[in-house]
Amino acid sequence: MATEAPAATYLMLCDPRDGCCAAVAASLGTRGERAVVVPNPLAAPATFSWRLDNRDSRSTFCWDGGEPIDERGIAAVFVRTTGWVEPAGWAPDDAGYVQGETQAALLAWLWSLPCPVVNRYPAWLWYRPSPPLLFWQATLQAVGLPALETIVTNDEARAREFSEGRPVSYAPLTSGAHFVVRSDRDWHGLAAVQAYAPVPLTHLHRVARTVCIVGDELVWDRRPSSALALLTPALQAFGAATGLAFVELALADGQAGPRVVAVDPQPRLEHFDAGGRERIVAALVRLLRGVASEVAR
Amino acid sequence: MILVCGGIADTVTELVCARLDERGYPYRFLDFGRFPAGYRLSWHWHAGHPEGTIATDEWRLDLGDVTAVYVRYLGAEGRVPPVGLTTESAAAIFVECDAGLAALLEHLPGLVVNRLAGGMSNHSKPLQALLVRRCGLLTPPTLVTTDPDAALNFFAEWDGAIVYKSVSGIRSIVRRVEERQLARLPLLRHGPAQFQALIRGDDVRVHTIGDQVIATRIRSEAIDYRYGRREGHAVEMEPAVLPADVEASCRRLASELDLLLAGIDLKVTPDGEYYCFEVNPSPGFVFYEQGTGQPISTALAELLQRGDTRPSHAQEDAYAQIHSPKPPPHPRAAPGRSVPVRSEAVATHG
């Protein structure tokens, strides 16, 4: 008598407070799918083992004392974390080490899995999850998406020349902060910073529209202007070119035409209204389930 | 014009500059040790690539005139701390300076030894192992686990002849697993560790410089020869010749990682099998060159002088196709086992 194969599991790698992950897991649940939310598959209460050699790559995963799941029993993985390790209880050096080990193992494991992974981040993005716009410029230009102009300079005169007498925005490349440089005092402050590091500057832009790319589907935060709507093929191409099935872009629609002002490979549902959130979650579920059924065949 | 970015006190960068000087190849030097002091840098995106200048009081270099770059980033220890800043602030400034330069060098047309993104796989040894397999080299039987029982079984399976090493690039010293250490295996529940079957044989360090391959055989009783002398073991080196297929695999591995200079760690068994352990994207080749007299720095100087006449990756392909380890894994595309590989179109960088 044939034994019925156990139902495949959808692995949601995220902080349990992540609203997007919770919504996707809930939606999968209402469709009878088994979704497990796991903050870190490489630390207790999870148990993880991965064997790799030239003949094979096989892994098993067990969550909180449950039944072990062979990698072939994973329908799809939805990734919202790079494997956060709570530093409490660790010496600072050891915390950094365990964090590094966890991230390294998780990245490789996700690349080894035969199932769909959304997103299967490349190493450069895994280790820098929110790179500034500068790092996306080549891809944006390659797919025909104009981007906000940025200058990087430690030359005070060149910075002022770039401003054309208008305020500019200074956003350090390694922090999420940004500052508007407007007054003489601001410019003096910027010059002081330039003594230590070249600064990236952009012109100020209007309030941006946000679009979430989910597979081939686009979800806008508000109805896009006709100029923005024309960018649909380029936006879809951006998703394909980056290998990111789930990515968010912010675009400003100014006099010079639309410009991408930000790229976020970890989209945030809170940037969208209730209708937008529903569409994103539905698209994600279709994406995960559609691919999963192809895998099943 | 060649641009060399590194530390004046860094022996590798110093040797590259010495070779360029010796051969009369002109270059400009950007000293990470004191940058940006003494330098004026301005650049922006224009027509698909960065445009701008780097200048000092003595010279001015248009980025459009840069034909080749050698870059070797420095740790905090190689830098002159800016006056008036705390250690923490100085560290933040160094990171910000590096990020700005990386954003430029990643996308500069022409030959860049090496673009940072290509080496990011080095932070995950099993990720590199997946690529190593694809390139036709052997990877040691490996277990990455948080399960003490799985580790114990692996130990038994290999009759205790296993090593442990970091999964990432942190604390990357290879050590033999001793019987007495098995009592500590329950600590695995806190985080993963990587175990590998002990491969016996001689170490072989392969440097790929463009298409050129220079191999060095290292004989040592130490598990990790890099620390052999510290542990009282002799370390002997000599030039080696690789089988053609192994040499080709090394070239392919470096090429798929977009590394024009790579240090590939192999071990050759008494049976003549070659196992690959990792690929170093910023190899400190001075150790091997001094030990054998092999012309690694000369080969690098020649590569830099030749430059790259082909279009840069940034121009011919999307950024993510360059740096994504495999063709875009669009989830709607036909699924299959995902193994890091870039498209062949961008894998021919020589």
Brief account:
The complex is a heterodimer of chains A (297) and B (350). Chain A contains 9 helices and 15 strands.
Note the gap between the termini of chain B.
19 Å
**How many separate domains of chain B?**
4
Greatest contact between two chains: A-B, 86 and 83 residues
Helix-residue proportion of chain A: 25-40%
The residue fraction in helices of chain B comes out at: 25-40%
Order the strands across the largest sheet of chain A as they lie in space: 2-1-6-7
Class of secondary structure makeup of chain B: alpha+beta
Measure the end-to-end span of chain A.
Answer: 22 Å
Main sheet: strands, sense, barrel of chain B: 5 strands, antiparallel
CATH level 1 class label of the largest domain in chain A: Alpha Beta
Sum up the overall morphology of chain A in one term.
globular
Mean pLDDT value of chain A: 91
Number of domains of chain A: 3
CATH topology of the largest domain in chain B: Rossmann fold
Overall pLDDT metric of chain B? 85
Describe the protein.
The complex is a heterodimer of chains A (297) and B (350). Chain A starts with 8 loop residues before the first strand and ends with a helix. Helices cover 34% and strands 26% of the residues of chain A. The model of chain A is unreliable at 292-297 (pLDDT under 50). In chain A, α1 packs across α9. With 297 residues, chain A is α+β, with helices and mostly antiparallel strands. Chain A is globular and about 65 Å long. Chain A folds into three domains: 9-126 and 285-296, 3-Layer(aba) Sandwich (Rossmann fold); 133-146 and 206-265, D-amino Acid Aminotransferase, Chain A, domain 1; 150-203, Dna Ligase, domain 1 (2-Layer Sandwich). Chain A has helices spanning 19-30, 92-112, 123-126, 137-142, 156-163, 184-194, 226-229, 232-242, 274-296, and strands at 9-13, 34-38, 46-52, 57-63, 69-70, 74-79, 117-118, 150-153, 168-170, 179-181, 199-203, 209-214, 217-220, 246-254, 257-264. In chain A, the strands form four sheets. Chain A has a four-stranded parallel beta sheet. With 350 residues, chain B is of the alpha+beta class. Chain B has four domains: 2-114, Rossmann fold (3-Layer(aba) Sandwich); 120-125 and 128-135 and 200-294, D-amino Acid Aminotransferase, Chain A, domain 1 (2-Layer Sandwich); 141-197, ATP-grasp fold, A domain (Dna Ligase, domain 1), CATH 3.30.1490; 313-346, no CATH class. Chain B is built from nine helices and 16 strands. Chain B has helices spanning 11-23, 87-107, 125-134, 148-157, 244-256, 286-292, 296-306, 313-316, 319-323; strands at 2-6, 27-31, 40-46, 49-55, 60-62, 68-71, 111-113, 142-145, 162-165, 175-176, 193-197, 202-209, 212-220, 235-240, 261-268, 274-280. In chain B, the strands form four sheets. Chain B has a five-stranded antiparallel beta sheet, sandwiched between helices. In chain B, strands 2-1-6-7 form a four-stranded parallel beta sheet, with helices on one face. A four-stranded antiparallel beta sheet of chain B has the order 8-11-9-10, covered by helices on one side. In chain B, a hairpin with a 4-residue loop joins β4 (49-55) and β5 (60-62). In chain B, α1 (11-23) packs across α7. The two termini of chain B are 19 Å apart. The chains are: A alpha+beta (297), B alpha+beta (350). Chains A and B meet through β3, α2, β7, α3 and α4 of A and β3, α2, α3, β8 and α9 of B.
